[in-house]
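Friendly challenge for the regulars: who can give me the structure tokens for this chain first? No prize, just bragging rights.
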Amino acid sequence: MFIYKKYGKMCKVNNIFVEVAMFQENEFTFLKESLEKCGLHITVVSPHDTIFDAVDERDISFFEKIFSPNTTLESLLGGIKPNTLYKFKDSFSLLYNAFLIPQSTGRKVVVIGPFLQERLGETQILELCQKNRIEPRYQKTINDFCAILPVLSPYSPIYVFLDSFCERMWGGRYTVADIVS
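First reply, four minutes later:
Bragging rights claimed.
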């Protein structure tokens, strides 16, 4: 769910398109391919999935330091409402965007990320480890993980692209909700 798949494509994404209204299939494919070209990753999950349902086994050790094994996307976002683009920042300053897919069977959520707003230095990562009560021996793993994440400034054109996508998907009427953990 909130995981950067380093060694392959997000396998859950392709399964969702059969559940979305036919006119949206091309739009979601375009979104996925465009964001992947920018280094961003997309996964599709149920709001009730735990974070570890979608985490690659080789990355669990990183995410188990941040989240409880029972944490769901819905609990992180305080419920998931239609026509809302969620911007989420976790305790490691990793950023995500999420939204409920309109007209999907079984309520599916698109999660974009993780990404960073700025590159984190070793001192910042050490401070984040201390803040999150993570042992210093994991600092290199976290540093390596953060080093491969894309960096998007708050003024990135990708946000204009995402805004246009949401306007088209929801007929111009949607809300942006900033969630800070």
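The radius of gyration is 16 Å. The longest strand covers residues 109-115. Your move, everyone else.
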